[in-house]
UniProtKB/TrEMBL annotation:
Family: Belongs to the TsuA/YedE (TC 9.B.102) family.
Pfam families xref list: Sulf_transp (PF04143)
Alphabetized InterPro entries for the sequence: Sulf_transp_TsuA/YedE
Protein keywords: Cell inner membrane, Cell membrane, Membrane, Transmembrane, Transmembrane helix, Transport
Native source species: Shewanella morhuae
Name the UniProt record assigns to this protein: Inner membrane protein
Localization (cell): Cell inner membrane
Transmembrane segments: 34-55, 67-86, 93-113, 146-167, 187-210, 245-264, 276-301, 313-332
Membrane-topology annotation of the record: Multi-pass membrane protein
Amino acid sequence: MSGLGIGLAMGFVMQRGRFCMAGGIRDTYLQRDFTMVIAILIVISIQSIGLFLFYDLGWVKLPVGHFPWLATLVGGVIFGLGMAAAGSCSTGAYYRAAEGLAASVMAVFGFIAGSKLVRIDEVKGLLKPLTQQQFEDQTVYETLGVSPWAVVAALSLLTFWLAMNYLKGRRRPVALMSPRKSGLTHWLFESRWHPFMSALFIGILALLAWPASLESGRVGGVGISGPSAQLWDFVTTGNTKFFSWPGYFLIGLFTGAFIAARGSAEQRWRYPGHKVVLWGLVGGLLMGFGSGIAGGCMLGNAVVGTAVLSWQGWLFIPAILLGSWFFNYFALVRPIRLAKI
């Protein structure tokens, strides 16, 4: 049941910290705001340091295989398109659905359906020209011919330098409402969480998932693409394969976000209109399909894969950036520019 516990904690932290990786990526090219990019690097660095330490101690195993570069690139771009269309990544869709946002509920439905669709044998056969294009080196340190600790050290130092420079910079003061709660309850459900603090918690939880899930015979960290497809099977056929470590993590993620939203009085049904809800569904489908092609979602690739120092994880990030930029350029940037002419 460790998957349920880690999922509960991560869902709670993500909801309270408003840890939206999609919004953070969008802000990098629309507002030149790199806050969430640095926060994501903090998550990766904490997990990477702990992961290779655990590996040296024999507490975890690392995944082995090859680098499906073309599938990662194409799947990442599709995922980025869907992420921009839905207004959140797949994980963000789950925690926002727990808040009662109709568009995110539809994005979750779409993500579940897309995750299942891409795993159908006939579809997998059609995708073989993508998935069979592979490089032998799976990780960055294999290609460079160095110890993984050399890459971990470089990544951690870069992250530390970026975070310190960010915190030293002058930030605009944030207007805060008078607190209605006090003590721990105020901190848990009312106070504003800095993205870096949320990143610290998420990094630790993502790290703990490795030894926790290994007890069930699973090699890997957190992820929601696979269990989302299994959830489809459970609902439609009664297949109970969903009730494994990843499935319990997914249940915990949604439940933890729901608890956080209820406690902070942010849980209420909101319907933003037919168009936004439809885009949520389309975006969810694209994210589910793209994550299946790329071999992981935002958590599985951009958080876990990068921490393992896999090329798959690090290629996935610029791929989703490209897909997200493409959608937002034609949906937001270009119409605004044309309106000014």
